[in-house]
Amino acid sequence: MGLLTLMFDSDGVWFTVPALVATGVFMIKLLAGVSGLGGMEELETGMEALDMSDADSVAAFKWLSVQGVAAFVMGFGWGGLAALKGSGLELVPSVAVGVAVGVGMVWLLAWCMKLVHDLSVSGNISKEMAVGLEGDVYVTVPVVGGGAGGKVRVVIKERQRIYDAVSEGPEIGVGTRVRVVSANEDQSVTVRPA
């Protein structure tokens, strides 16, 4: 008996079709988010859903409904099929195993997304903490009022941060050591050569 016959027989089809469709949806969403074609905004709002203090977030609910349902159905399908064909269980116990694996997949997805979110947050480091520290120019820093676009790299608490910057004096070229003299309201910092 071939693999396709096992997967698509009378009972196996109830697990195989949802598993294949959900895996396809999940992979498309994952690849779209990773490749920059979309989905990262949904990731960010999905992370808000993990924080129960923002329980009213409609966008977070939408993200969880797409990713969460795909993860659940994917786990249900593959777990149920494994129980039915791999362990030889009957249909009803296989459905119970599928539901348990689906719930586990949603939990695993939430846990992984929390880890990714924790890696991307800045923690308790604010731009005000950069005042007085030295860094280097990453993108040429224009004079105040000379436009935006300058960037500086500063290490705060052993973490590198890149801030938008303007110069207190003349334009500052790439690679120049600078000192942060103030944090501005527009989320930039003012710098001068060190």
Word description of this protein:
With 194 residues, the protein is α+β, with helices and mostly antiparallel strands. It folds into 2 domains: 3-120, no CATH class; 127-193, Nucleic acid-binding proteins (OB fold (Dihydrolipoamide Acetyltransferase, E2P), Beta Barrel). It has helices at 3-7, 13-35, 40-50, 58-86, 91-120, and strands at residues 134-139, 150-156, 159-167, 177-183, 188-193. The chain has a 5-stranded mixed barrel with strand order 1-2-3-5-4. Strand 4 (177-183) and strand 5 (188-193) form a beta hairpin. The longest helix is centred in the middle third of the chain and has 30 residues, at 91-120. The chain is rod-shaped, with a radius of gyration of 25 Å. The N and C termini lie far apart (75 Å). The model is unreliable at 39-62 (pLDDT under 50).
